[in-house]
Amino acid sequence: MAGKNFAWWQSGVIYQIYPRSFQDSNGDGVGDLPGILTRLDYLVALGVDAIWISPVMPSPMADFGYDVADYTGIDPVFGTLADFDRLVAAAHERGLYVILDYVPNHSSDRHPWFLESRASRSNPKRDWYIWCDPAPDGGPPNNWLSEFGGPAWTLDAVTGQYWYHAYLPEQPDLNWRNPQVRDAMLAVLRFWLDRGVDGFRVDAIHHLFEDGRLRDNPPNPDWKPGMSPARRVIRAHTMDQPEVQEAVAAMRRVADAYPGKRLLIGEAYLPIDRLMAYYGPGLSGFQLPFNFHLLSTPWEAGAIAALVARYEAALPPGAWPNWVLGNHDRSRLASRLGPAQARVAAMLLMTLRGTPTIYQGEEIGMTDVPIPPGRVQDPWERRVPGLGLGRDPVRTPMQWEAGAGAGFTTAAEPWLPLAEDWTSLNVAAQERDASSMLSLYRALLTLRRAEPALSAGAYGSVVVGAPDVLAYDRWDEATGRRLRIALNLGDGPQMLAGFAPGARVLLSSHLDERSGPIQGAMRLRPAEGVVLELPAGA
User: Fold this and answer.
1) 201 and which of 18, 265, 300, 435 could share a cystine (Cβ 3.0–4.6 Å)?
2) Which residue from 392, 330, 326 is spatially nearest to 361, judged by alpha carbons?
3) Does residue 93 carry a catalytic annotation?
4) 359, 326 Cβ separation under 8 angstroms
5) Do residues 69 and 108 lie in contact, with contact meaning Cβ atoms separated by under 8 Å?
6) DSSP three-state, residue 206
7) Three-class SS of residue 455?
8) Which neighbouring-strand residues pair with 98?
């Protein structure tokens, strides 16, 4: 829902689809594009405005689509380009925007560009990737480490040089300093924009450039056994290099040449001060550099209030905020916080100022699923086992109904195992339960759509004098209508005082009725959040 003078992505809500696990239409155990099409009406009923689809381009699936072998096609496991076109058309018919994953940092080692680059040192595409002679001892050129464990360099025995890969060896990094690479990758954006895509989530943008002098990364004095091996060094020379910003600006210029306010979202796990640079000078960069800080902030009222204040204060003039509580790489919300606080978190996400992104399954309270060793798919877990880095537990199939295959697939075995609770925790069961997590998400999204104060209004922190309570106001600057959100992040009741006569509860995360107006004070139950309407002039 776009308000007056607001772009659709400012007042809208984004829903992330991990296509392998959303809906399987052909019984092969893997989700696909026709499957997504069959669930569009569910997403409309949920109340979201846009769908972000994780990678569906042709890929050997070494990293499940983030190793792209053809930037202008659809992998057969997901369908065809015609299927994609039908999905975009059907989404647009329903008023849904479509955001596609774009992976500019690296391709697959099976991509024709890399096959040519690897063929010989004199190949015209040699400089499309990052090659370097061995160190004097024959080893890697420097101490750079792969995010997935081990050196970030792999030796090509035929040409005698190493290629650089921030992730898997099967994901060689593209050389964005080469103008031909830049032009080719910007042409990829145009290809999908011409097909009607409304925007892109740009993967791993902070890795796009590396230090041109290939200097060693400094050791990390805070690294301890049990942490990711990649964190043994501080990524000073392999991440967030200055040249990234011009590349982002070039992507933005491509998007801005198309009608309809096309959206660019940037994936960059960075401190707030460094993240702000990705809005670009004069807001010429990403409209939404992903803000992941809620994922790592302690679930405490003071810590979250401080985070929101710090983030809001850091935003460049005119920049639009955004918030994320879950995605395909991080532990699920209900596993991190528990089912009760996950409901409070849903209210937080839907009532903070800025664009929220929901990860599929959060709206029914799905949890991390233990993966037996024989069913592990994630290359990170396979390369660095036992550290809890594997992402399979958060990528298991969507739980639609209690029947066989959870309504996700008719296959005897889906690509990842189902959660044990699928027969009780599923969409169909929650649609019949007026107090379910799904009912809460629908109520929150309905309220957000109805209240300009929530979808596009101003924000102000409020001190209520109750421990464990996070409180803030949202107000519509055009009408003055003011709402107060109060979230009990603790496991005991809390008393809130100081309400002017006429305040009333619009929505409780418990989804039960609170009768009558509030008379000066109200009691918040454990793990309860409320949205209150404040009287005019309060």
Assistant:
1) 265
2) 326
3) no
4) yes
5) yes
6) helix
7) helix
8) 51
In this structure, the dihedral spanned by the alpha carbons of residues 448, 303, 359 and 366, taken in order and rounded to 10 degrees, is: -110
Cα–Cα dist 531/121, whole Å? 63
Q: What is the DSSP string of 411-435?
A: SSS-SSPPPTTTTTSSHHHHHT-TT
Q: Dihedral of CA 396/398/401/405: which sign? A: negative
Residues in contact with 315: Cβ distance below 8 Å, sequence separation at least 6, in sequence order: 276, 279, 321
Residues 6+ apart with CB under 8 A from 255: 189, 193, 199, 200, 262, 263, 264
Contact 398, 365 (CB under 8 A): no
> Do residues 215 and 234 touch, judged by C-beta distance below 8 A?
no
**Rounded distance between C-alpha atoms, residue 222 and residue 304, angstroms:** 24
Choice among 63, 267, 362, 528 that is catalytic: 267
**CA atoms of 389 and 387, how far apart (whole Å):** 5
Pair of tokens at residue 284? 């010429």
The region, left, alpha or beta by phi > 0 then psi within -120 to 50, assigned to residue 461 is beta
**pLDDT confidence bin for 4, thresholds 50/70/90:** low
Residue 534 DSSP class: P
Beta-sheet strand order (sheet of 131-132): 131-132, 161-164, 153-156
Catalytic annotation, pick one of 67, 75, 170, 203: 203
Distance CA 442, CA 170 (A): 41
Q: Which residue has the tokens 């984004």?
A: 14
Consecutive H or E run containing 210: none
The Cα–Cα gap between 378 and 393 comes to: 10
Q: Are 100 and 197 in contact (CB under 8 A)?
A: yes
Pairing mode of beta strands 504-508, 529-533? antiparallel
Answer yes or no: are the C-beta atoms of 520 and 337 closer than 8 Å.
no
Active site residue 203: yes
Q: Which residue has the tokens 């005991």?
A: 492
Say what the pTM is.
0.97
**Contact (Cβ atoms closer than 8 angstroms) between residue 159 and residue 172:** no
Q: Which two tokens stand for residue 182?
A: 């830049």
End-to-end CA distance of the chain: 27
Burial class (CB in 10 A: 0-12, 13-18, 19+), 133: exposed
Q: Where are the beta strands (DSSP E) in 250-354?
A: 263-266, 288-289, 322-324
Cα-Cα-Cα-Cα torsion 46, 51, 54, 56, nearest 10 degrees, comes to 110
Q: What is the mean pLDDT of residues 196-205?
A: 98
Under 8 Å between Cβ of 128 and 71: no
Sign of dihedral through CA atoms 124, 127, 130, 135? positive
Q: How far is residue 306 CA from its own chain's centroid?
A: 22
pLDDT digits (tens, 9 = 90+) for 352-401: 999 999 999 999 999 999 999 999 999 999 999 999 999 999 999 999 99
Q: What is the pLDDT of residue 536?
A: 84
The Cα–Cα gap between 462 and 453 comes to: 16
| Distance set, CA 213 to CA 141, 238, 251 (Å) | 11, 11, 26
Predicted confidence at residue 1, as pLDDT, reads 43
